[in-house]
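User: Quick sanity check before I run a bigger batch. Here is a single chain. Can you write out its predicted 3D structure?
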Amino acid sequence: MKKATKVLAIALAIMLVAVQGIAACTVFAVGKGATVDGSTMATHSCDSTSDDLRVWLIPSMPEGTERDVVLDGRAGADYSNFPEVKDYGKNGMVLDTYTTTRDTNQYLHAMYSFMNEKGLAMGESTCSYDRNSEQGKKVRAAFDGKEGIYDCYMLQDIALENCDTAREAVEFMGALVTEYGWNGSAECIDICDGNEAWVFEVYGGNIWVAARVPDDSIFVAANRARINFFVENDPDNYQYAPGIKEFAIENGLWDGQSDFIPCFTFAPYPYRPYSTRREWVAMMSLDPTLNLDPEEKDTDRNWPCFVKPQNKVTVQDIFNIYGNYYQGTEYDVTKSIWGGQFGDPLNPAQDFTQRAINSYRCTYLQIAQVNASLPEEARCLVWFGWGAPSVTYLTPLFGSQTSLPEHFGRGVRADYDRESGWWNEAVVQQLSRINYTAAIEDVKAARDGKMTVQFAQTAAIQEVAASLIGMGKTEEAVAMLTNYSNMQSKMWFNTYEELADTLLSNYMQGSVKGNTWGLKYTDFWNELSASEWGQYK
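Assistant: Done. Predicted structure follows.
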């Protein structure tokens, strides 16, 4: 690989990163012993108001292909014919190139690419830190002028292209950051492969840490660095940048005597309700006996990095947590003026009061479910849906499939496109807000039964594919998985097209089928009405 090109290019690249849209994501990494079926999971809700909406398949590239290292190559980019057509969008900048030393893996490419044909999966959560705290100021000074050439988009792309396992991805990404440096905000990347689940945190410069998730446990992060322990000389379970402690001491980030806490040392934000409250409700949902305090100020030291769930989880369980808006707690976002009379948790104003895991601005949600007992072509399963988790669906995609329906590669936020997968869900999401209390029941009626059947069907299809592969009929198995996935995706598109019509008909102007009398308001709204406007009744 050529070293980064010109000083001017680097300077311009840094300026571009500064104006990127801010992501706000929640991720889970799940060990195989924590799931009902023995699969690992790596998840990601890609939450922002500027993420690209589209999903593509990037084909395998032969050994000897020259590949660009691109910074910020997402906004407005078009990867529909990559690598023949290299369209990196309005901000994309080529900083370097490398030549592939193997035939690369095919993978599913989105704002953040997430699954390859080997069953390697990953997600990300951009980590903020308190830049004005005493520790934060030291961190800023320590990383000032140390920008490299890899951002999160590129690092995930290149890892999925070149790696087959989670451990291999950790070592590969760590080596790249060590040699070529990081460019962008701190990131937490969750990774799994069917056997292992890992968390890889990169903070800036050449500094990174990675920890293996215990098989019986689950990791959760919400826009905050979370690896709060350090283990030396145990590469099977913990890896880190060379000279990481020396760097911390030299830059006044650590005294060399106290506990070395990577997340606080390099990305200090021990209490941030925007993040910590999401982590709190997720961990408490997994294990209520933890008795965590949502107002805890020193979470870096006092909260666990990993949680052993009371009950082994399914994809549906994780999906339910993604739909959480603090219901049943004092932070319930529907019990505020922003929820309105119909308890709407998707009001954009909610993010400025209580940021829930379930967010109106979720671009897409993916939950990888990788079972190592299956052949690679059948194990590379990821569940995908556009939009806010509480009102979206999950459809099965495979890193090995040979095509995607057309609606996956369509859509921009500024222009309504009825043939776009994102817009198809977005219309349902927006219409559900007219009368959320009633509309969510229509959503569940259209979605939940089909998803239950789909979970069982998909598991059965994977077993059939495994049998075909065992008989040497790999192409037939992949063709079957492709056909099944595309049929399910189109089914959901049609279902949500019909659901949009139902919601529009049922709740136009807030009525229920045209009737404005006897509308069911939330208890919160009725109590507010009684106290504030009772004299008008």
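The first strand starts at residue 26 and ends at 30.

User: Great, the batch can go ahead then.
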